[in-house]
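Input record (one chain):
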Amino acid sequence: MTQTLTVKLLTATDFAAYGDVIEVSGEPDKLINAGMCGRYHDRAKMDFSDGVAGISIFNAKGRQLPYVVDMVERHPEGSQAFIPMTQTCFLVVVADDDNGTPVNPKAFLTCKGQSVNLYRGVWHGVLAPLYDAGQYAVVDRIGAGANLEEFYFETPFVIDAVPA
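The corresponding structure, as predicted from the sequence alone:
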């Protein structure tokens, strides 16, 4: 038995409760390098209880539809940003928190050129590039202590279609 999860295209407005959509929009905040480079400044709210920000590289295998969401995780000690290094769209599953239990999961599909920063403590699915493998720079907390909680849904969710 599964439940269907509908996917929406990722927008900053719809994703605001869960994190930042990191993308180029509008005019740059500043021109640098003799006017040859536009800087879009401070696009994500990185948040760590302690430790330091680290950059890791993730190589993720492509996922196919139907895609089953049976587990989510969260990082109580720090935010986590996923920045594609390949032109791959990926699924972002997030859920609200109800006293330590993820509820009301939502699914988003990134467009090429979009990245996400998940706020500290937000329940989220695993990294899931759609169809093709993807390589990602991941900025998150590096430090002592546990920073991972996992939750397995009693009844999994399935994604069987994405917006065109």
